[in-house]
Amino acid sequence: MKRLLIVTGLSGAGxxxxxxxxxxxxxxxxxxxxxxxxxxxxxxxxxxxxxxxNIALVVDIRGGEFFxxxxxxxxxxxxxxxxxxxxxxxxxxxxxxxxxKETRRAHPMGDDGDILHWIDKERRLLQDxxxxxxxxxxxxxxxxxxxxxxxxxxxxxxxxxxxLKIVVASFGYKxxxxxxxxxxxxxxxxxxxxxDPVLGKMNGNELEVQEYVMSSPESLEFMTKFIDFIDFxxxxxxxEGKTSLNIAVGCTGGMHRSVTVVNKLAEHxxxxxxxxxxxxxxxxxxxxxxx
Length: 291
Hints:
Strand order of the largest sheet: 2-3-1-4-5
Structural class: alpha/beta
Largest sheet: 5 strands, parallel
CATH class of the largest domain: Alpha Beta
Shape: globular
Radius of gyration: 21 Å
Strand content: 15-25%
């Protein structure tokens, strides 16, 4: 067995779609397995004559009182010398409430109609396991296809020592900081093309906007120091064994300055040979609506 992945997280955060993506990647998936059965199940897979390399086990609050044993079981796996990873999925309260209402499903912890109460209680109960997670995905702003891309990006490589995968994301502060960010940088001090009648209608993917944003000495100095800082950090994370790094760069609306900086950083990381990709979260938001 090369890889054991524990999939958990908040109800309604997208675990079902995550499992479908993992199955497509060749993972042997089991949904709602009681934690106490995990060590025995893993042993059976190791002893099996079938070639089972990658296993994904969905363990969540549906297990009721059995779920409380998860932390102890994870310690047991460590004592057995079995390496594992934890994928934790979450979403904002507003998004989870909307999803439950759209599907007309009750929360697994209670069917009294007080969805918000159960969402908050589940989030508190999962704090410890969230803190042990190797990868956290906030699905609030992700479509099913975007979630699939995230899963493919981080778990498509089935080597025993996963490569560090870097996501460089732009965002607008007016729409909130991405919850899954590891590092957050504010570039609202840079020249803002928004007020230019021509450039304001464009975005940071276009050369004219990039030249405007980088026109000040402060922007150039920041970019030099920013890249130098990231160049220092990334090898340290690799040495520590980190498998994913989310770098978020924000400006006011997430269309011009942050997009410019993200593009330049991602270009540099690519030249350095790192596995990186870009996500411009708010670049298509207009009049407060996601396009």
